[in-house]
Design brief:
Two copies of one chain form a homodimer. Chain A is an alpha+beta fold and 333 residues long. Helices cover 37% and strands 24% of the residues of chain A.
Chain lengths: 333, 333
C-alpha cells in the first residue's frame, strides 16, 4: 500500500523530439541517453481507502489536483495504472527532486520513472524492468529511459499499441565510469513551453521536421558504436550535432521555440573555443536553457575552472553515469 | 579613367543562403531585401597605365594583393570586368565603409555595388541598372540588390549563364518611408567564417538544406504581398521566421556555424518579450552576430530606449529605406 522509489534524470545524446502517437506517448524516433548520477527524484506513493482523494505533493508543495495540467498529466497516469491494477482507491504521491523542476533538467523523466516503480510495488503490479519502462513512458516519454542505468536506448517500436516501444540498456554505469556531464545551470525558472506541447507543435509546423527524422538513425548508430567502443570523440561530436538539429527544429517551429538565453550561448561558444584549443568537450541541450558539457573525467576540473572564469559563470553540477530506478526503504512521509 | 560611386548595404527580409553555381554566383533561391539609408560605401576607382598594378585600399588600409582572399574575390572580379571591357590596365580601388566591415552588416553588398558602378563609369562599360546588378552579383551575391533602393527582389533566374539572375526593384524608398531597421551592433569583429564559405558548406552538409529551399517561395510571396500592401505584421513575422530558418540551416552545417553571441540572444529574447507585451517589432539576422530589429518609425524611439536599458546594451544605428547605387562627384583620392 506504500512504497518509495528513487530514479535519476537522464540526458539524451540522441534526442527524442516528436511523437507518432500523442495518446500512448510513442516517439517518432528512437533515442539514446545517459542516466545521470546525482539528479535524483525520490517518490513515495500510498494508496488505499485512507487517502481521501488523489494528491500530489511535489518539492514540498501541494499541486492543485483540479488544474488542467494535473488532469492531463499525473491524474491521467494514475488513471492508467488504476485501470491496469483494477483498483479504485485514491493515490497520494509525495515526490522530491534534488534539482530544479521543469527547467530542462529531465525532472519528468526521473519523476515518472520513480512514480512507476513505486506504484508497481505499492499496487503489486508485478511488472519487470521492460514493462516498467513501458509504464513510465506513458507518464513522460523520456522517463522510459530512466528505468535503466548508464547508456540506454529507447527503441521507437513499430506497433500501434506501444508494446515494443521501451528502453533497452546499452551499457551499464560501470562500462564507462570516466564519462562526465558537467551540467551548467543558466536559469532555473520553469520553462514557458513544456516539452510535450513544444514537440507537438514542431511536428505540426517545422519545415525541418522531415529532415530531422531522416537523420536520427545515423546518429543512433554512431552513438551505439561510440558507446560500445568508448569512442568519446564520436559520441561527443554526434551528440552536439544532434542537439543542434533538435534546436534548429525548435526554433523553426511556429510559434518559434527559442530556449536559449545569453548564458546558454556564452557556454556554447566557450565549449567550441576550448575544443579548438585542444580541450576536448562537447555540448548538448534539451528543451530549456541549460547546457550539458560532455567530457572525460580527467579534463572536468579544467572545464569547471574555465566555467567559473566566464563573465557570467553558471552554477555547475558534475554528473557521472548513474543507476536505474530502484525501490528504497526511505519514505517521504 | 577615374570614377566614384556610393552604394548602401541591404538587409534581406527573405535570405539568400546557398548557390546553384559557385563560379557565376547564382543563388539557389530568390531573396528580398531592404536597401538601407545610412550604411554607405564610397568607392573610387582609377584605371590606366599610370597605376603600376591592381591595388585595394579598404577603410584606409592597403589590402595585400598577393593574398589568397584578394585573388579569389576582388582580383577575380576585376579580371571579369577587364575581360568585359577588353582592357589590360591595372585598377586602383579605394573604398571606405561608414560602418564595420565583414561583421554581418552587408559590407560586401554595398562594396561590390559601388565598385561595379564606379567601374562601369570609369571604363565606359555602358551597363544599364539591370546589367549593373548582374555585374555586382559576380562580386558578391547580395550586392546585386544594393544596385536598387527600397525593397528589392533578387530573382533566382533559371539560365545557366546567369543572364536572368538579377535584382528587380519592388518598391522604392518613398513607398514605405516609415519602415525602420534598428541595427544592433553586438560585436564588430570580422567574422571567422565568411558567408561564401559558410553557404557552400551548408549546401553540402546541412540536413535541412532541402527543407529550407522548399520554404522560400512562400516566404517570398508573403513579403512581396506585405511590401505592396504595407502590411508590417506580415513582412515582420515572415522575415523573423525566415531568418531563423537560415540560422537553423547554419547551425546544422558541418562544421556548425553559430554566429550568435550572448548579446545576440539577449536581443532576440527581448524583441519577443516586447512584442508579446504589445510593442510590435521583429528581428532578422545575417551571417554574423548583429540583430536588426524591424519596426515602424513611431515605435523606434521606445525600442531604442528599451535597448539602452538592457543589461548589456548594444550600439544602435537606425536606418530607413535608402537609395540605390549612384555615381558621385566626391572622390577618395
Amino acid at each position: 500500500m506504500k512504497a518509495s522509489a528513487v530514479a535519476r534524470a537522464n540526458i539524451a545524446l540522441v534526442k527524442y523530439w516528436g511523437k507518432r502517437d500523442e495518446e500512448r506517448i510513442l516517439p517518432a524516433n528512437g533515442s539514446i541517453s545517459l542516466t545521470l548520477d546525482g539528479f535524483t527524484t525520490l517518490t513515495t506513493v500510498e494508496t488505499g481507502p485512507r487517502a481521501p482523494r488523489d494528491e500530489l505533493i511535489l518539492d514540498g508543495k501541494a499541486r492543485g489536483t483540479d488544474t488542467r495540467e494535473f488532469r492531463e498529466t499525473v491524474s491521467r497516469f494514475i488513471g492508467l495504472v488504476r485501470h491496469e491494477a483494477g483498483m479504485l482507491d485514491p493515490v497520494k504521491i509525495v515526490s522530491r527532486n534534488d534539482f530544479p523542476t521543469g527547467a530542462g533538467l529531465a525532472s519528468s523523466a526521473s519523476g515518472y520513472a520513480a512514480l512507476a516503480c513505486a506504484l508497481n510495488e505499492a499496487l503489486a503490479l508485478g511488472l519487470d524492468a521492460r514493462e516498467l519502462s513501458i509504464l513510465a513512458r506513458r507518464g513522460s516519454g523520456s522517463a522510459t529511459r530512466s528505468v535503466f542505468g548508464g547508456f540506454v536506448e529507447w527503441v521507437r517500436g513499430e506497433r500501434g499499441d506501444g508494446s515494443d516501444s521501451h528502453a533497452v540498456p546499452l551499457a551499464g554505469p560501470d562500462h564507462w565510469p570516466a564519462f562526465r556531464m558537467v551540467v551548467c545551470l543558466t536559469d532555473t525558472q520553469e520553462k514557458k513551453v513544456k516539452s510535450r506541447a513544444g514537440m507537438a507543435s514542431s511536428v505540426a509546423t517545422s519545415p525541418f521536421w522531415g529532415g530531422w527524422l531522416r537523420c536520427v538513425e545515423a546518429d543512433l548508430e554512431a552513438v551505439r558504436h561510440g558507446v560500445a567502443s568508448r569512442d568519446f570523440s564520436l559520441v561527443g561530436a554526434t551528440a552536439e550535432a544532434n542537439a543542434l538539429k533538435m534546436h534548429a527544429v525548435m526554433m523553426t517551429t511556429s510559434p518559434s521555440l527559442l530556449y536559449w538565453n545569453p548564458r546558454t550561448v556564452q557556454i556554447l561558444q566557450a565549449v567550441r573555443e576550448w575544443r579548438e584549443g585542444g580541450l576536448e568537450c562537447y555540448f548538448t541541450m534539451d528543451a530549456g536553457p541549460q547546457v550539458k558539457i560532455l567530457c572525460i573525467e580527467d579534463v572536468s576540473p579544467e572545464i569547471r575552472t574555465r566555467l567559473s572564469r566566464l563573465p557570467h559563470p553558471p552554477d555547475v553540477v558534475e554528473a557521472s553515469p548513474g543507476e536505474g530506478v530502484a525501490l528504497t526503504e526511505k519514505h517521504l512521509f
